[in-house]
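Supplementary notes (optional reading)

For those who missed the lab, this is the record we used. Protein: ATP synthase subunit I. Length: 129 residues.
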Amino acid sequence: MNISLEKQIKEVNKGIVIIDLIAAILIVFLSNSPKEMLTGLVFGSIIAMLNFRLLAISLQKSVTYPTNKAQIYSTSRYIIRMIIVGVVLFVSAKSPHINIIGTTIGLLSTKFSILGKTLVIDKLKRKEA
């Protein structure tokens, strides 16, 4: 895998961990069942990191294919990633030890990490200019 891509994945994963720590602190103080919420948060975050890595791998691979094959490959990988998210949410909903809200927050932590990083970088660039 490309070194630049690996670096970006690591940065997003660091952001996910930071967001999880903030969410964990909030969960401990605000939740009625912090153990289940924290378990869901960790479960969702691990799957989010895996899903983000799978996305990076599939994008890097799809650019090597011709247009039609790349579209089919990308679509099939997207469907696989969404099935994984569906299974994770289903397991979370059925398990009494995992809170589905915590899992959802964990799954969305990738988005929060990327948005947070983008907002911070944009603010820093504006201050420099």
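If you only remember one thing from this example: The longest helix spans residues 34-62.
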